[in-house]
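Kindly inspect this today.
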Amino acid sequence: MQSITTSPVTSKRRLWEVIFASSAGTVIEWYDFYIFGSLAAIISTKFFPAENPTTAFLSTLATHGAGFVARPFGAIVFGRLGDMIGRKYTFLVTLMLMGGSTFAIAFIPQYNSIGLLAPFILLLLRVLQGLALGGEYGGAATYVAEHSPDNQRGKFTSFIQTTASIGFFVSIIVILGCQFVLGKEAFGDWGWRLPFALSGLLVVLSYFIRRNMDESPAFAKLKKEGNVTKTPLRDAFRSKANVRLMLIAMFGAIIGQGAIWHTSQFYAQIFITKILNVEYSSAQTVMAVAVTCATPFFVIFGSLSDKIGRKKVMMAGLLGASLFLFPLYKGLDQVVNGGTILETRINTSGEVSTYEDGKVVTKTPIKLPNGDVETKTEITLPSSRLLMLGLLVFIQVIFATMAYGPIAAFLVELFPTKIRYTSLSIPYNIANGIFGGCAPFIATWLGSMTGSKFAGLYYPIFLTAMSFIVGVIFIKETAGKKLEEE
């Protein structure tokens, strides 16, 4: 068994405590951030005008994307604080900001109660979530990396990389659990608020886990020597070499990583439910299982990067995504096309009819307030086809784990301790927030504008291919670098 060489101030037990405390809080922040995306279809009917469902859904995705756009500003604010006052205190603040904003969403009145004020409040809280997340990742990644041994930094920081997928998975499980307990009708009516309300309890729990953490050894040493910068933002951008590293990291790795991550875990969900019309709970279950099965590969590829290098692993993931995304989504379409089509129609006489492949299978008379005709189409799939659907999603997520698993160690190793939090957070959150986070909205918009199921894929394919080319040319290997080497 390989021994772990940690610094004198970081024992093996303490290192795992650091990883657990950092990861637990970050999982909760990702859970908070992603329940919004997982409930986008329902949120669109609650906070936007109902006259045009497509516009309402796109407006919801745009609001979802606003949180990502806010992330770079959070990186600037909290990155600066992290380099000035310390890693620990900064991501305690981001945790409370994220949790409070998410908790508040549970209590926003709907559009039919307060009109345009409803989407405005929703947008404001979403922006606050984005600001918090912009400071969280850089803090957690830096904190764990500065406790980790040089020869296993990829392995230990990759646990932070799993938190996004775990948070996404937890959001799906909580949503499905609430839906199962309450029933679809009650969940769609008011039960969707419960996953947001649960955030308050989770944040309090995470706060008590994090509050007893010590400052990282690297920052503590810097502070003891009196070398903490008072102007981290200016220092980060005053050095041309540091700016060049930030640009290389952003265009050569993070933009492509963000595109494949958000495509595999969010646009895949939208594609399956909104474009292919697969029944909602089945689609969510497929996503949850696929993401769960792929999550250990963040650690596998992070550990592999300690042995063969960060660059090789990340570039392999970007290349795989750019080559195989289109065939994978064609495969999703072919799998679903063989399913059973269930169509529910409410006619002018107030009768609900369910059709299976065009034939009536049930009729239920009800009384309607008016004679409007409503049609809803959902496709149910046998377990064998759901398995195939899950496999195709799993492959996408594997490419994301290759690109994402080593990236925290890679970014931490690029920048000096004095301005690490700021220098890491800004390119990461610009790339993931603006380019990657907006991928579901842009892909959905492209599909609606062109009428093509697959037009949305050109955006993530372009970004992953671009990052692969830039990364191969400009990225230099960082694995094993001592963080003291400024």
